[in-house]
Design goal:
The complex is a heterodimer.
Chain A lengths: L12 E3 L5 H9 L5 E5 L4
Chain B lengths: L6 H8 L9 E3 L4 H9 L10 E5 L14 E4 L16 H14 L4
Antiparallel strand pairs in B: 2-3
Classes of the chains: A alpha+beta, B alpha+beta.
Chain lengths: ~45, ~110
């Protein structure tokens, strides 16, 4: 399932500060498919 | 969830799973963790180190839909201890759940 990026490649991390709406929108935009969600600590 | 968790840590961690199908979010107020815990029946719990599988069709409105399967790595918490998996067992159980979710042949 994909490969690791190099340390200097950027990855978009979307902030949920103030609202869960970006997560909800992404979750619902893919409702025609099964979905996997993991809540992990980055450290 | 941990004292050193911050937006600055999320970027490098996100690079570990660099698949175009994956979206990474940083949740400084732990809203997702609270919503997920509530969806699993905990009134005041906080979900993290948790893996959830959702069937197609379910929508997140006031809260997320009920997952068809889930598992966690919280050793002592509100979460169902029967769903606790860690170490070598975790990827095996995640793989089984993913196959059930997607209908993939083992």
């Amino acid at each position: 399932m994909g490969t690791q990026r190099s340390p200097d490649e950027s990855v978009d991390v979307i902030s949920l500060g103030g609202s869960l709406q970006p997560l909800k929108d992404h979750f619902n935009a893919n409702s025609n498919k099964p979905r996997f969600l993991a809540l992990l600590s980055p450290t | 969830m941990l004292p050193d968790d911050a937006a600055e840590a999320a970027g490098p961690s996100a690079r570990i799973i660099a698949d175009p199908r994956v979206r990474h979010f940083h949740d400084p107020e732990k809203r997702a963790g609270k919503a997920i815990a509530e969806s699993l029946g905990s009134e005041d719990g906080l979900a993290w180190d948790i893996y959830l599988f959702y069937a197609s069709g379910g929508q997140w409105s006031d809260g997320p839909p009920a997952p068809i399967d889930w598992m966690h790595q919280l050793p002592s918490s509100w979460a169902d201890p029967a769903r606790f998996h860690t170490g070598d067992e975790l990827p095996v159980e995640l793989g089984k759940a993913m196959k059930r979710l997607t209908g993939a042949q083992p």
